[in-house]
Amino acid sequence: AAPTRYEAENATIAQGAVESNHAGFSGTGFVNGENIAGPYVEWTVNAPSAGTATLAFRYANGTTANRPSDISVNGTLVADDRAFEPTGGWPTWVTSTLTAPLVAGENKIRATASAVGGNPNWDYLDVEIAGPSTEYQA
Ligand code: GCU
Question: CBM6 domain: which residues (predicted)?
């Protein structure tokens, strides 16, 4: 199945704002969280069935230091202090991918800044649920 895109500006935002002053984002803007530990963006993702999903976070980090973020799914930590590495500039967006299990129906995927620098700027989350294999044995 093709991934479904969830724009950060449409997610639940804690301690952050939607901005558009750095080019290259998808949708109408991106989320700039405060530069402290704790701000988060939480996407509500609907999965047609339970299974392993590929989560692709598009972000920018124009600093020279990692912006670590705790990634949780439905309250369970799936990536502790995931390093969102420098991208080379604020208008330079890259995608960082991990896999995590989703339940059927609604899932809450949250990225919480885990260090004092805060989160990177978030553009979107792409979610692709693994479908049944198209291979078969005759
Ligand atoms: C700059 C940049 C912001 C970014 C911030 C940060 O102010 O313009 O988009 O969020 O740095 O360090 O997080």
Answer: 4-128
